[in-house]
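Anyone able to model this chain together with iron/sulfur cluster?
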Amino acid sequence: MEVDKVRFDEKNMPTEEGWSPSTRISPVTDYLRNEQKTEDELNRSVILTSLDKVLNQGRSRSFWPMTCGLACCAIEMMAAGGARFDLARFGYEVFRPSPRHSDLLIIAGTITKKMAPLLKRVYEEMPEPKYVIAMGNCAVSGGPFAGSYSVVNGGDLFLPVDVYLPGCPPRPEALFDACLKLKDRVNKPEIADVER
Ligand code: SF4
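re: yes, here you go
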C-alpha cells in the first residue's frame, strides 16, 4: 500500500524531463539511462578497428625510402633530407642503403634504358608492402628527353607508380607534399584501388 501511495503521489509523476529521481517507479527508464551511460563510457574508452588500419597508420607515418638517385632530381631529394628542409619532421627520413630495408622507391631523375632493368630489380628486392613516387618530369613522362633513343618515357611503363610529382626539378617541399599524398593513399587503400 505504501508503494502505491508513492507511485500515485503527484510529486512523483513524470515531468517534462522524465521521471522524478526520488522514485523508482520506472525501471525501464532507469535501465535505458544506465544503458546510455554504459554506451557513453564505452565510446570514450574503447576503440574498434581492424589490424590493417592500425598497421597502415604506422606504415604511412614512417616510410623508409630507398637511397637511390638517378639524375638532377636526386639533388632535390637529398636536400629534402637535409637540415634546411628536414624531412625528419614527417618521419620519412630513414633512407636505407638496401632495398630489403626499404618500403618506398623514389624515382628521382631520368630513367635511361640501360638503368631501367636495374631499377626494376631494386624494386623487386623490396619487401611488401612497397610504394613508388615518380619524382620529376623525367620519371613521370621522360621530361625533356621524352622520345630520346636512350630514355624510358616514364617510370609507370615498368613500375606501379603511386604518386606522380611533376616539376623540373620539383622542390623539396613538393616532395613532402608527394609523401603526404602517399600517406593518404596508404591510409585509404580502397580509394587508391578505385583510382587505379
Ligand atoms: S626532371 Fe628535370 S631536374 Fe629532374 S632529372 Fe629530369 S631534367 Fe633533371
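The mean pLDDT is 84.
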